[in-house]
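User:
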Amino acid sequence: QVQLVESGGGLVQPGGSLRLSCATTRTSFLFRLYWLGWYRQAPGKERELVGFTSGSNTTYVDSVKGRFTISRDNGRNAVYLQMNSLKPEDTAVYYCNVRFSSNNYWGQGTQVTVSS
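Assistant: Predicted structure:
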């Protein structure tokens, strides 16, 4: 069983930055092959995919392109979400998601609030 531990959320003013981290509790040399994604869910809305990285490919939803960056550290079995130029509409609970083979694991979620 793989557990994901998230950190890095908080309250930030519009235009600010935050970096979210997500690490597995059990390391694997196969981590480099995993599909790693970040989702978010705002109050009253469905969970949406923010972006993902798999192999050499990284993709983002249009609303965060140019502002958010996903990176991974295969040695540490971790994935990160760097969020810059944050807007109030980025306020949500953010979840990391790890998939490999038929397995699908979620982080516990971390709250990001963008407000002045």
